[in-house]
Design brief:
alpha/beta, 4 helices
Length: 128
């Protein structure tokens, strides 16, 4: 998933979305008020953790969720928002199938359409 937000509202959108995500309770699915449960299996958990590591290794800015894995049992990951990573970054070009998403700014419709279509998968995206 990728979220494209017009530069005129980017800062406000990022701040609001970050506040919402920080308010999510992460834990076992049977837990009360849990918004986000574990990743489905160990293999997928390791794949998604590698996305967190790749973002850290490349110095991308985490608006939230930089800690990644949550100590304890299960395959729990703190949801993460990556603030405006490069278009060619792995987090933009690949689908992690986990709780980590890039938010990217755009200026013109022509630019954003070109950027949105520059992927092999295109499973999900939002333009604001």
């Amino acid at each position: 998933k990728r979220i494209y937000v017009h530069q005129d509202i980017y800062s406000e959108f990022l701040e609001t979305m970050t506040a919402v995500v920080k308010g999510w309770k992460v834990g076992p699915v049977a837990g009360q008020d849990v918004m986000l449960g574990p990743v489905q299996n160990q293999r997928q958990y390791e794949i998604v953790r590698d996305f967190y590591e790749d973002c850290r290794r490349n110095g991308y800015s985490f608006a939230t969720g930089a800690e990644g894995a949550i100590a304890g049992t299960g395959y729990l990951l703190q949801p993460a928002i990556i603030d405006n990573p490069p278009d060619a970054s792995r987090i933009v070009m690949e689908e992690p199938f986990g709780p980590i998403v890039p938010i990217l700014s755009w200026l013109t419709e022509e630019e954003v359409v070109t950027r949105v279509n520059d992927t092999l998968s295109g499973l999900g995206g939002s333009v604001w």
